[in-house]
């Protein structure tokens, strides 16, 4: 079996910098036409000028024959100004502003401590400029159970935000719960959408502990119960325009995963399209795969759909046990396992 679909885009991607960037960027460039690049570097990408410099580094790291286009974002802080939003929009290179609640995930220590108190004028300017808010949707209150942080964030932050600024475009990134599905579906179409990762539609929280602690299945937001996984699968395979592909592929050196305090992040870029195809096939919804991977995201962001194509062939192949580089190893998602679908460029 073969499917020919419009080349997909990855609307949530971590490419890191330095040696890691050079190692992983070609994997995304092989399968995706564009990607929304996350700004949580050290130091974070908080200005348009730093986003443009980072973009140049990405372009140097991909093969010269590639047409991959990195779409940049800025890291929202308590001190971001409306003027910076104006500069970002005018640049033509910045496509969204990323909200990390301070302390929520990797390199989020510079994130927002009070969205309404410190950033409201910035959010109003984003409405004026038509720049979406890309949300890591978790509260960081230590009194909230880690498995409830998305749900509480929706109740305390997102619902009030949408009510106060209904014209603000919001992407709830890497959703993990049925609560997020219900929230997105309750909002006005075209204003609130969500990205969905391979891990959150294939794994539930049991995958963290089966056969011992599994650090390469640890990501943030953390994997949830099976009922939540099923709810997300039903949402994305239904044909809804509100959900689109965002891998949240997040590479770390193996030594930083397999240690006393392992980093959060799953590296899935080499296998993502194979895994999305698997889920849509099992749901009997291969006819809806192209919209999810290639149409819904560009349509929400107001950018043209890709013109080139990619082929998905049902042909078993084995995922490498590890990807080795001079700095160390990266363990890909489903390392050593055989997948049914293979993505091939045309």
Automatic annotation (TrEMBL):
Top-level division of the source organism's lineage: Eukaryota
Reactions the enzyme catalyzes: (S)-dihydroorotate + H2O = N-carbamoyl-L-aspartate + H(+)
Domain (Amidohydrolase-related) ranges: 10-319
Keywords: Hydrolase, Metal-binding, Pyrimidine biosynthesis, Zinc
Coiled coil spans: none
Keyword match Cell inner membrane: no
Any one GO CC term of the record: chloroplast
InterPro entries, per the entry: Amidohydro-rel, DHOdimr, Dihydroorotase_CS, Metal_Hydrolase
Main EC class the enzyme belongs to: hydrolase
Gene Ontology biological-process entries: 'de novo' pyrimidine nucleobase biosynthetic process; pyrimidine nucleotide biosynthetic process
HAMAP family assigned: PyrC_classII
Family to which the UniProt record says this protein belongs: Belongs to the metallo-dependent hydrolases superfamily. DHOase family. Class II DHOase subfamily.
Protein name per the record: Dihydroorotase, mitochondrial
Organism: Vicia faba (Broad bean)
Classification lineage: Eukaryota, Viridiplantae, Streptophyta, Embryophyta, Tracheophyta
């Amino acid at each position: 079996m073969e499917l020919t679909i419009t080349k997909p885009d990855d609307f949530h991607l971590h490419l890191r910098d330095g040696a890691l960037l050079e190692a992983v960027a070609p994997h995304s460039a092989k399968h995706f036409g564009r990607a929304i690049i996350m700004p949580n570097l050290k130091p974070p990408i908080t200005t348009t000028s730093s986003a443009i410099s980072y973009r140049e580094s990405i372009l140097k790291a991909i093969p010269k024959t590639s047409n991959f286009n990195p779409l940049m974002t800025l890291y929202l802080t308590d001190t971001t100004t409306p003027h910076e939003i104006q500069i970002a929009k005018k640049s033509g290179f910045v496509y969204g502003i990323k909200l990390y609640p301070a302390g929520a995930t990797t390199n989020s220590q510079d994130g927002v401590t009070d969205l309404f108190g410190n950033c409201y004028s910035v959010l109003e300017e984003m409405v004026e400029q038509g720049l979406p808010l890309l949300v890591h949707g978790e509260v960081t209150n230590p009194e909230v159970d880690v498995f409830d942080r998305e749900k509480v964030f929706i109740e305390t932050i997102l619902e009030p935000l949408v009510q106060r600024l209904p014209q603000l475009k919001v992407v709830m990134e890497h959703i993990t719960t049925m609560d997020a599905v219900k929230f997105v579906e309750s909002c006005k179409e075209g204003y609130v959408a969500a990205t969905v990762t391979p891990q959150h539609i294939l794994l539930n929280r049991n995958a963290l502990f089966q056969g011992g602690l599994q650090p390469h299945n640890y990501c943030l937001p953390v994997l949830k119960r099976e009922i939540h996984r099923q709810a997300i699968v039903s949402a994305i395979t239904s044909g809804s325009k509100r959900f689109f592909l965002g891998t949240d592929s997040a590479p770390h050196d193996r030594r930083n995963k397999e240690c006393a305090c392992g980093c959060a992040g799953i590296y899935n870029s080499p296998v993502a399209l194979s895994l999305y195809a698997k889920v849509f096939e099992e749901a009997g919804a291969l006819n809806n795969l192209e919209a999810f991977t290639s149409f819904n995201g560009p349509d929400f962001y107001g950018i043209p759909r890709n013109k080139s194509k990619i082929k998905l062939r049902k042909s078993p192949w084995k995922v490498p046990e590890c990807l080795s580089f001079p700095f160390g190893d990266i363990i890909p998602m489903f390392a050593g396992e055989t997948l049914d679908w293979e993505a091939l460029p045309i």
